[in-house]
Design goal:
By secondary structure, this protein is an alpha/beta fold. It contains 13 helices and 19 strands.
Amino acid sequence: MSEHLEENKAYRLPAEWEMQEAVWFAWTTRQDLWKGHLETVQNRFVELYQLCSRFQKVHILCPEHAQLELSQLLNHQESNYEITVHTYETDDVWIRDYGPIFLKDKNQGSLISSDWSFNAWGGKFDLFEKDNGVPEWLSRQLNIKRISYSQILEGGAIETNGEGVLCTTKNVLENANRNLGNESINWDECLQNYLGVDCILWFENGLYNDDTDGHIDNVLRFTPNHKIIYSSESNPESPNFIPLRQIESQLNTYSKGALKDYEYHAVPVPDPIYVEGAIASASYVNYLVLNGAVIVPTFGQAKDEEALSIIQSCFPDREVTGFNCLEIIREGGGLHCLSLNQPHSN
């Protein structure tokens, strides 16, 4: 392990707005997911793949038995960039969380795959072994070095500015369902040593009723030019009111230290969306950054335009586009959760 610690000092965790080589997705075929909505969601996914291919290469993990159907759906439109389908059957679609966390060599710009354990967000779901194998498989496909760790860490649980600052939530990383009862993990030291960051900024919680226990990518994101977008709720009756006010308060505290040069932009959470009687963890902040574009979840609400306008102001050099996620949110995730950015390597 000391060998890994020493080696990772040469690597850094890049920001998502840096140049990318491609974006990865996983195709869904399970009938028990999106019950009654699977075909609609599959069509949405194809629309998303086509939209992303306007800006960069797209890779899709898909079981062999579903590839003919997927290829037929993809052939309806031409793409600016190549869309490649790979034979790999995943358990679920949320590749952000079980895929590799890419690092870049500080000097040469080459990629390394950081492979962490995945247990379906604290053992909430039974199927995750295939998902857990994605980092090793993908590293072989890219022919890059992989370093694996026993600790459980999902990609959506961390957010970085690419300059050594990382944000995360205590309710995820310090949750007993991630640490497997081991309270001895020093996450500050772990993240600094294994991801090459300098400073960890802790927040308490994420969104209410989030299957992930409160991933940071639903509530706070860095943007270029030292800006931060964060989720806010003005309705005191909302279950998100107190957690998001806590985040705002913590940001104000950090503005006196690590974030003293940062400009904050609050984005409202969508009006409540109910799935089988429960509030969905819908967020505009769970957007996907691409080369030249930002794809933002929308929900057919008046707040959509307000959110798009705020996000556009933070990404003035990119095309900001809304993408309807009303069906996708039924399984609890957004566009950032669905995708995995592959940084460009020199």
